[in-house]
C-alpha cells in the first residue's frame, strides 16, 4: 500500500538516523524505477544510479560528504550521476551545464517521493566533493556526481509537518 502523492510531499523530511535493516530488493527496485521514470530534456535520461550497500564504499562516500554520518549509517546510498555529454549531443553547452543537472534532480525527487510512499526514510545529500564521490564509486570521469540519497528505515521519532512559506510569499500570477 502506498501513500497519496500529496501526503508524500507534505510528510517527507530528511532522516539522518537509520536502522540497520536493509530494504527488500523489490522495494528498492520500485524506488529506482521511479527515479528512472523522471522527466528529462529530450527524454535523454542522462542519469546513472550507483546503488551502494558496501560499508567500505559508504565510508568513503561519508568522508567525501564532509563526514555526514547518515551516509555511512544508511543501509543503502544511491549516488546519482549525470552524463553531461549525453545532454550536450542534443542541446550543446546548455544541455551539458544545466539540463543534465535538472534532469538528475528530477530523478532524485522521484526517488525521494517513491521512498516516502513505500515507507522508506530518505535524506538528500548535496554537500560533497564530486571528485571523491566519483572515485569512491569508480564512475567514469565523464560522469558528474549530482546527489546522494540515503535510504533505509527511520530510527528517528516521527516529526511534525515542516513549516513552509505561504503561497502568497512565493507565487506571482501574470495574467
Automatic annotation (TrEMBL):
Coiled-coil features, chain-numbered ranges: none
Cofactor: FMN
MF (Gene Ontology): oxidoreductase activity
Known EC number: 1.-.-.-
Nitroreductase domain segment(s): 9-74
Similarity-based family: Belongs to the nitroreductase family.
Name of the protein this chain belongs to: Putative NADH dehydrogenase/NAD(P)H nitroreductase AF_0226
Species for this entry: Sporomusa ovata
Amino acid at each position: 500500500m502506498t501513500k497519496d502523492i500529496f501526503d508524500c510531499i507534505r510528510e517527507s523530511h530528511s532522516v539522518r538516523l537509520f536502522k540497520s535493516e536493509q530494504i527488500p530488493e523489490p522495494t528498492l527496485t520500485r524506488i529506482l524505477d521511479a527515479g528512472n521514470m523522471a522527466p528529462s530534456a529530450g527524454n535523454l535520461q542522462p542519469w546513472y544510479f550507483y546503488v551502494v550497500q558496501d560499508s567500505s564504499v559508504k565510508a568513503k562516500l561519508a568522508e567525501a560528504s564532509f563526514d555526514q554520518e547518515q551516509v555511512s549509517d544508511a543501509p543503502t546510498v544511491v549516488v546519482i550521476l549525470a552524463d553531461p555529454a549525453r545532454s550536450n549531443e542534443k542541446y550543446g553547452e546548455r544541455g551539458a551545464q544545466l539540463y543534465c543537472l535538472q534532469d538528475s534532480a528530477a530523478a532524485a525527487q522521484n526517488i525521494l517521493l517513491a521512498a516516502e510512499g513505500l515507507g522508506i526514510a530518505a535524506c538528500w545529500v548535496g554537500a560533497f566533493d564530486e571528485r571523491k564521490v566519483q572515485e569512491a564509486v569508480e564512475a567514469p570521469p565523464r560522469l558528474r556526481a549530482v546527489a546522494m540519497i540515503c535510504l533505509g528505515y527511520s530510527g528517528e521519532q516521527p516529526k511534525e509537518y515542516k513549516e513552509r512559506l505561504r503561497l502568497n510569499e512565493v507565487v506571482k500570477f501574470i495574467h
